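As a warm-up, study this chain.
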Amino acid sequence: MSNASQSQTTTTIGRGLLERAIFSTLTTVPCCVFLLINVIMLFTLRSKSVFCETSRYILLYNLLFADTVLLALSQLLYIIAAFRVRLTYPICGFLVMLTNVITEISPLTLVVMSLERYVAVCYPLRHATIITTRNTEVAIGVVWTFCSLNVFIQVLLLLEFPFDDLESEQMKGFCAKENMLLGPMSDHYNKAYTYFVFISASVAIISSYIGVMIAARSASTDKASAGKARNTLLLHLVQLGLSLSSTIHNPFLIVISKVLDLTVFIRIQIVVYVCIVIFPRCLSALIYGIRDQTIRPILVYHLCCRLKLRAKAEVSP
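Now compare it with the structure written out below.
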């Protein structure tokens, strides 16, 4: 009986490790593909002087950089959780806080990009004066400072938690933002800040869209430019919604985990993670790489070069 029980336990453990390896592979492969596309897109945005000197492309670079870093961090945290690696509170806190900074960069950058399109359509004669390279860099600096200040406040709230009363610095659960909200004050502040950011961003993008719609009816406005700006703002709104979904998907998974079978829950978790966390981080590269006529030929050229180089490397002995 003892040998049979031990054999069954070993089989169960082996099956569990195999499932984790398969699920991790299913998420890591698309993640690596999207990371490759994002990195090539970032390289493309630094390959020509026009991209480095145009405010729209500078903002796009900042958005893509944040999405790329967040994609890598999210996959790292996912693999750590999938293989049940228990981190210490300081290490997990550093990873979570870094993730929090990068997470908020995307919606705020989308707001700045929407305002830039609004000025381009509604004030075309003043666009070159208002939207300069220097002003764009200042706006990006304000975005990063604002997000860093939020994390600094979260760290101050964490310091109120009595860490000395813990038996060990080793975490009992996996590393996630929800597990680092150790006090009610931290939880309330995180929810309030998230609601404030996304509601403010939604209002700003929708207001810009309405402004462009009104300007498009004017006889002096370029109809083609206004139409492109309107479509771009709609895409920004979709991106903002996906960013919000990726922010709140963990509480949703926690709720459904209590009513579903473990196997079914893990499969749903994989689908949700790929669709809500991984895919939106490559959406900017796909949207602008396909729609923008200045970026598209250069991006295709770099993608084809990478594929040719890889094919030659595989063929050569």
